[in-house]
Amino acid sequence: MSAPQPPVPQPSAPASQHSVPQPSVPQPSAPGSRPPVSVLGLGMMGSALAAAFLAAGHPVTVWNRTRSKTGPLVAQGAVPAGSAAEAVTGGGLAVVCLMTNDNVRELLDSLGESPVGRTVVNLTNGTPAQARELAARATELGIRYIDGGIMAVPQMIGGPHAYVLYSGDEQAFETHRPTLAALGGTTFTGADPGLASLHDLALLTGMYGMVVGVLQAYALVRTEGISATDFSELLVPWVGAMLSGAPQWAAAVDSDEHLTDVSSLAVNQAAVPNFLAAFRDQGITTEFFEPLKAILDRAIEEGHADDGLSRLVDLMRA
Ligand code: NDP
User: Fold this and answer.
1) How many domains are there within the chain?
2) Is 61 helix (H, G, I), strand (E, B) or coil?
3) pLDDT digits (tens, 9 = 90+) for 255-265
């Protein structure tokens, strides 16, 4: 899967646990002093991670379930491990990037007694609850566990716009931060191992909301033969201008002050049926927008007609 490019992070000082974490600028180690790294999982992302460590001068050990995928990295100087346990015990920091956290759990369970004292950084996509479970299992095994969320596609890894969110064992993270900087910016989100995943999923939630809206807009204009490419010239600045209001929505959410002089929920509730009707008239799906109508209707029923859209955050609690 090729995900859209995440926003360009603005480097700044590392954040405290209670503020919004910001990526730090990659700080490579001095030449000749780079510690060894193992990379477990050599799919599109894992291969990019291993290549970035190699490019930064780290000795790299690689392991993949399908051994043939180690070939290109071995050709670049990586050393293939005979087993996952060998990779974790023999190569310093172990960076894991598999398809799912179930795969990671199986991998941890296959390590036996050997990994005691090792540090594992798990960059597999997953949920906060999965990260906490894996951290607990790693602790049972004597492993220092760091969870992570990659805010980049493979082609961006090691480049100026990539960054990775981390959470979990902070001391281990600080020890290995210079090594992890080979992948891009390093953003520590807190000692709770679930926090990197939470931030990752929240950032991707914003992205998917934008993607769904943009694709629905293209579908709508295409019903009249209008070029999506031409329409994008109108859409991109419009969406960008609307997104610039996000800090004001955030202030309303944080202060729980939702009264608005911009556009009330009543106005939005009156307008959204027009979108649904137009989609039907033009022959495109309403399935992405039906939930928007439902939550607006509920907001009005619950007495929030004069509030702005920021009020919907309250109604999103399941
Ligand atoms: P790929 O499909 O390219 O690779 C999947 C990897 O998982 C392979 O190494 C595969 O091994 C391994 N794997 C799958 N099942 C098992 C298993 N049961 N036991 C051991 N290993 C297994 O995926 P990506 O590399 O693209 O993605 C990996 C992770 O990175 C995912 O969690 C993804 O969400 C995340 N990610 C990916 C991004 C991207 O743009 N690609 C962006 C950000 C995060 P084998 O070769 O043997 O099949």
Assistant:
1) 2
2) strand
3) 999 999 889 99
